[in-house]
Amino acid sequence: MDNLGPPPLPPGWTEHVGPGGQHYYYHVSSQQSTYIRPLPSFSAFPTTPAVAEAGRKKKERPLVKTPIPGTEWLRVKTTEGNIFYTHKGRKESHWVVPEEIRDAVDALEHAESRGAEQAQSQQQHLNITEAELIQQEQHTEVERVKAELAGAAKRKPEETTPLEEVIITKRPRTEEVKESDDEVTEDEHDAGEEKESRKAAAHLAAEAGEKEMKEASPATVEGEEAGVNKAKEKPQLSIPDRVDLSLEEAKALFKTLLREKDINPLHPWDTSLPIFVSDPRYVLLPSVSARREAFDEYCRDRARELRQQTVKKEKAEGSPKEEFEHLLVEEVKSTRCSWTDFRRTWKKDRRFYGWGRDDREREKRFKEFLKELGERKRAAAEKAEADFFSLLRESGLAQPGSLWKDIKRELSHDPRYDAVGSSSLREELFNTFVKARLGSLTNDKSGSIKDNEEMFKATETREEDSQHRKLERKQRALKEREEKVRVERGRVEAEIGRSRVDLNKEESEREFRTLLTDAIRDPQLTWDAALQELQIDPRFIHSALPGDRQLRIFHAYMNQLRAKHLSNLHALFESHTPSLATVFSMLPIESLSKALPATKLGLDVIDLEREFEKWQRERTHEARNAFDDMLSENAFVDFWGRLGKLGGEGIDGGVKADDLGEGEGEGFGGTVDMKALAKNVDLDDIVKVLKNDKRYIVFDHVPEQRERWIRDASSIYTVKHSYQSDVVRLRKIVINSLYSNRDVFLRELISNANDALEKLRIVSLTEKGVWDGTSPLNVTVKAERDATGKGGRIIITDTGIGMSAEELATNLGTLAKSGTSDFLATVEGEESSANTNLIGAFGVGFYSSFLVADKVTVASVPPKSSNNPNPIQSIFSSTADESSFEIFPDPRGNTLGHGTEITLVLKADALDYLAPSNLMKLIHHHSSFSTAFPIYLWNEVEEEIPVEEAEAAPTPEKVLVGRWEHVNSQPPLWTRDPKTVSDEEYHLLYQATFKDFRKPLAWSHFTGDSGSGVSFRAIIYVPSYLDETFFSKPLESNSRDVKLLVKHVFITSDLGEYNLPKWASWVRVIIDAEDLPLNVSREMLQSSAFLKQIRGIVVRRLIQLFTKISEEDPEKFAEISKVYRTVLKLGAAEDQKNRGKIVPLLRFDTNQRNTTSLDDYVKNKKQGQKQIFYLADMGKPVSHLAGSVFVEKLDARGYEVLLLNEPLDEILVQTLRTWKGFKFQDVAKAGLDFGDDTEEDKDVMADLQEKYAPLLEWLKFEAQEVVRDVVLSHRLVTSPCAIVADNNGLTANIQKLISATNRGVEREDFMQTMMKKQKVLEINPRSPLIEGLLHRVETIASDDEEKDRNLEELREVASILVDSALVRSGFEVADSNKFLSRVDRVLRRSLGVSEAAPTDDTVKPAPPVDPEMPDETFEDQEQQLFNTPDWLEDQGFKVEIEEIDDEGNVVHDEL
């Protein structure tokens, strides 16, 4: 048998060699593969009990439950022999014996051990009989094995394969999924995996047994009997007993297996599996998923180890600094090389990052190398020049009068010639040498060498100076580049930081979703219930996600889980619903209600019916859409339907009749009417085409409705119409209803003038003749009053592109015709249009002039050009009420040169605009920054000029003098680079825009993007004062301080619901956006998204500005904090989103320093301190708070206490609660903890407590109406007592806040009353007053009369003590009259005055009633307000009053 080879393979099996060198076998027809050699089919061996038991072995389950006497606990023994204890009522289990039943378990085990001893004694009597039976069974088994081995060769291939030769294969997954698969639980899946693992182990054991049988010698019966006995003792397919290992231990052994096999961490699971699947340690882990997880962990750890080994090996091969130096030498060849480019190129190279602590050190070495490289190059250049001079001397060709171009060919072959890199430098050196040579000829030969050397030295000196200047320029340029690189690097690092935060956030979200997938299976689970399961998982404990984000992800996951179960439920509905006519009562309701989707979703019968009806409606809607698609897709219905919809009748209606010949067609006339034929197409013909379509069959239950749908689809007639408009009415709507404020007319006309000037500038770039570049481009505005004084006109003139007669008719005579939009379309893509400021977009701005004018006349002429060499000035004339306009040549001729002049004849109610001050106000308000071209306004003022007379002195005479005033002289600074704008320019812009002549405290000039694609520029100003109405009108925000502009044109100051928050409403902002979705009147935004984004950007920039100032200029920030400290506290309390950034900007007074921040306070904390101490009492000065009774011990011990005296302070502290892990502690409230108490301190306090027990009990009884308890104090030093609020009580400051509100004044609820009573009286045991009071309480006389008198005095002293403690602690005394009466009695006794001594209470009575009434005299209200004293009037003092508008401008009422 030893010489026999392996048995032949069964039919269909082939042998192959795998990637690891192992042999495997493949079956073609079944597509099965195995690493175990398949054997031909033999008759099956009888299965031994051990093998059968191993095949049937399943998941560990409870086997024996033993009640523990006297308890509700059970001892459970499992099928694997493990024991655990469970409680039926509490539903909890333990693997170890609980302490509460340990004695009972010991008693039970003792009883069981005694029973086992008795059973063992009985078993000994049966051992002899069992031994004989075993010998007989062994003999029988040997004979059976012999018989089977003898007949093994006669087995046929067709026989079934025995259990010992079962081949474990991996079959391809099929798409057939049974309905019951959805109901397989995860436990059954794990059990299946464990069963497969044990099955594989059994197969490996069978293979090993088979190999041993083949190697065994059949020569002797003894060997066979020994083999049989061995098989008897150890079954052939035995499975190792279950190893009692934890999951971590099993995973460690599995990883050891992988490490021993040297598994490549880069190979996937399927590739590596054949290498270690046959090892017994493979089955230590309970499931395939656990093995895969351990395999992945091994791959990660192993890859990391290999990478670390590689790095260590590379580091050991060479010094990191030497490699970095070598990299510099190899790659940096020019001194112009920048650090940014070098770092970007080599940052991933080990030679780059292997040396240096950080980039700063590497950058420093890089710059030093550049300097060294520059020195080497400079030395090389000097040597090359000296060698070149030597070459010229040696050659003898450089003689006076010789030319460089003649001799350079003779020198080019010498290496010293090429050493000078520049040809111009060679020529310059040659000329220098020739001049020196010429000078040397005039001197003696003996002194020639010396003179030449001096000349060369002078030349070298000049060259050195030149090189020095070049070096300085290079260094300055290098510094500028380094600054730009530093700024760019900061920006890139900030972006990288944000990207890392986003990446970490995505990883955390992905891990949290995986946690939910692993832990949550119930779609009805709530967040609170899920927390109990999630909190035990380390992935939840260490998650970096905030709570609200976790909650949103949880709800999204639960929605997905419910959607999954709903999808399964809908699949069940579909399986029981053959058609759309099926109703809920026809379904198997009982089985559906017990199905897994319904039970998971917790749906009862009513909920199932509701869900079924909803699903049926959605299904019907989808079927209806599919039916319509069927009708539109069908060519038959489409053709006849469209043919029937054509307009006209018969042949004359446009449908050509086909010529079918004589005797054919309708009426045998030879023609056919296709339209008539289409109308006669029967419905049955269409049904015959559609009846086999599933989309048609699905509506068999509603045939009438289906027929109506088909008829509608084939017989709908549609007619297209063009929109019409009443131009006259539309024009009136534009004039009268488009704009809400007629002040915008001047803004629109100036914007049109700007566009005309901008067009001229752009056109002149391509056609030089239209503008010579020197003639002025401007806009002028002039108001003229009629001679009668009853009317007037306004003339707006620009020197822009102008318009011809045709353009006047097109642009002004057509509504919504935007000439600017057409112009932009023509120049789009050209370089000249890249930097333009064209405003117009809608084509209706011109018609705003009719808001104030009855008649508008426009005179315009275009410039001379190649297309129009002789332009004619034309006039456009129209009135507000006419429905037509006139255009005619200007009889004045060409008075403009080029440009446009608009004359507005004002209405009777618009004559206010004739005042230059009003026009100036409109220009300042809307158009001061809208154009870069100057705007001039004609203004006339009275001036006194001397008039000379014949025989008298000259007398002054007032005359009107007119001049053009430049209105928009202030440029839009926000369009410039902040580095080029001076502080004075920022101040002037602030004064001109906001009419505030006090310098702002700070400003921020920046450019940004709103996040929605809209770029803008802005300047934020911090005023030097806070408006007095800020706190007096808490619900109002000053919208005048925000100026929103679009393309430099003012749009609005009202941000609506997106106004800045109250705490930041004082900031003054100029925002200029490139483009925004405006309405036609350009008075408001179409979309509010930009306003919402702007609000966040302004608040963020303001906080950044304050933060930067606080870090760089503390003195300036102290000035800002002096003005805005209360506002910042309001922001920290209200703005939850930015609270973490605002709180570090807050400054507080303390008992140790004038101002400090919370961060500085935390840095100054004492050892063991876990609280932030503060004392709040609004309205009191800081010095008063520093001397408070609550602060005296804290101050004496050196603790810092925040002293808060503003109403917002208490609200802020209650809002924050904690800061950087430190809890805020009111020192006027219970709970004060120094954090350094020792056991000795506690013992001392206990002794004092025992000593003062009588006084505490007596005071508690006497003061029970005022305080809840009386205790010994550890916060007092010199004061005898104080009253503090309990943990649930109200401090004196909070009571003041409540009383200051209307609700506090009107009434108090029950809870508020109870909280006010939660006070504690703390007495100082070291105070002499308290010690004396204790002595009096203990030594009251025994005599009743004397005792009563002493007790009454003692009570009076105690009352005064408690009331004074109330006053000292900031509380109010309940009855101040009684308190003062007690003090009066004490003072009398101390001064020796009798307490019963009366006080003289006689007073003078009032006079009798006066029946006469006083005279009613009324004074002018303005005189009452501005009444000057007589002594000022005597000195000529006068008061003049001027009216100021909302913008701060003086209103002139000349009319």
Strand order of the largest sheet: 12-11-10-13-9-8-14-15
Low-confidence blocks of residues: 42-56, 152-194, 211-242, 644-672, 716-720, 827-836
Strand content: 5-15%
The beta-strand count equals 28
The biggest beta sheet is recorded as: 8 strands, mixed
Q: What do you see in this structure?
A:
- With 1455 residues, the chain is α+β, with helices and mostly antiparallel strands.
- 48% of the residues lie in helices and 11% in strands.
- Strands 12-11-10-13-9-8-14-15 form an 8-stranded mixed β-sheet, covered by helices on one side. A 5-stranded mixed β-sheet has the order 16-17-20-18-19, with helices on both faces. It has a 5-stranded mixed β-sheet with strand order 21-23-22-25-24.
- The longest helix is centred in the N-terminal third of the chain and has 75 residues.
- The protein is extended and about 155 Å long.
List the helices and strands and how they pair.
Elements: E1 13-17, E2 23-27, E3 32-34, H1 49-56, E4 62-67, E5 73-78, E6 83-87, E7 92-94, H2 102-124, H3 127-150, H4 186-215, H5 221-233, H6 247-260, H7 269-276, H8 288-317, H9 320-331, H10 339-346, H11 350-353, H12 359-395, H13 404-411, H14 415-419, H15 423-441, H16 445-519, H17 527-534, H18 538-541, H19 547-576, H20 589-594, H21 596-601, H22 605-633, H23 635-645, H24 674-679, H25 683-690, H26 694-697, H27 703-714, H28 727-737, H29 744-766, E8 779-785, E9 792-798, H30 805-812, H31 819-827, E10 853-861, E11 874-879, E12 886-889, E13 899-906, H32 916-927, E14 935-949, E15 952-966, H33 983-994, E16 1002-1009, E17 1015-1022, H34 1029-1032, E18 1042-1046, E19 1049-1052, E20 1068-1073, H35 1089-1112, H36 1114-1134, H37 1139-1142, E21 1149-1150, H38 1158-1163, E22 1171-1176, H39 1182-1186, H40 1192-1197, E23 1202-1204, H41 1207-1216, E24 1218-1219, E25 1222-1226, H42 1239-1251, H43 1253-1262, E26 1269-1272, E27 1281-1285, H44 1292-1300, H45 1302-1306, H46 1310-1316, E28 1319-1323, H47 1328-1338, H48 1344-1368, H49 1376-1391, H50 1421-1425, H51 1430-1434
Parallel strand pairs: 8-14, 18-20, 22-23, 22-25, 26-28
Antiparallel strand pairs: 1-2, 2-3, 4-5, 5-6, 6-7, 8-9, 9-13, 10-11, 10-13, 11-12, 14-15, 16-17, 17-20, 18-19, 21-23, 24-25, 27-28
Helix pairs in contact: 3-5, 6-8, 12-15, 15-16, 16-19, 29-32, 35-36, 36-41
